[in-house]
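Now for one protein, fold included:
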Amino acid sequence: MTEPNFATLVSRWYEENARHLPWRKPDVGPWAILVSEVMLQQTPVVRVLPAFEAWLARWPVPAALAQESPAEAIRMWGRLGYPRRAVRLYECAVAIVERHGGEVPDRLDQLLALPGVGTYTARAVAAFAYGQRHPVVDTNVRRVVCRAVAGQPDAGPTTRPADLVATEELLPLEPAAAALASAAFMELGAVICTARTPHCARCPVESSCAWRASGQEAPAGPTRRPQRYAGTDRQVRGLLLGMLREATGPVPLQRLDQVWTDDVQRARALAGLVQDGLVEPAGPDTFRLVGDGPPLPVADLTH
């Protein structure tokens, strides 16, 4: 009898051990999967869970969000971090309604054409929502493939075209089985083949892992230097956005000035929020979340 291959072993392990997450339920739709994938970018699952549930409860389909304003998306995003993702989801909802009749498209080229949807997110939606055969490659998948196949302890900080090729070569030919394997690879990297403390004794492919056979140890330090938050422009942006998010109308610049004492840094952070399409002038020396009210006359925006 032929021995089970890599994808088969990992898929069997996944079916028995996968975490029960709401976006993995059998009846979950493509919109929910798209929302989850955007929320999970650079954000831990534990923080995403309540935000995901609240978002889908309010906007269960793209058309529901498209009828709102980007300001409401930013408010609903709360403190999940990287709030431009909220605007991108709003823009996605509008594009889905305008281009695809309110249904998340199933073609990879159409997914890639949605605002803010990149290589990873498009392939994740195509695989997990529509059961298609695509290499879905995030940090966890790259680490699993790099260790198990290439015998290296770490895959590095960025995804390269070679990572897509190496992952696709491991996928079964049958689309549904390939989609399952893609989810399994990701889960294995998230909970077993972790960056610093891999649980090799519990790994379904330990016996064939090239990295284990090499005897190399996991890197002692992080592959990326942790980003500092306190005192950075990111912190100031968060404080400014928090005040605007909680306001019921435009906020005078004088009030925004109270969130941070460094005038230069505060002005730079506010300008960055405007440039990123999160905040807009609401008149002379007043600001609001983008789209949080009727359009302003051009004259008001130039004062």
Remarks:
- The chain has two domains: 6-214, 233-301.
- Residues 71 and 273 are 13 Å apart (CA to CA).
- The beta strands are 251-252, 279-283, 286-289.
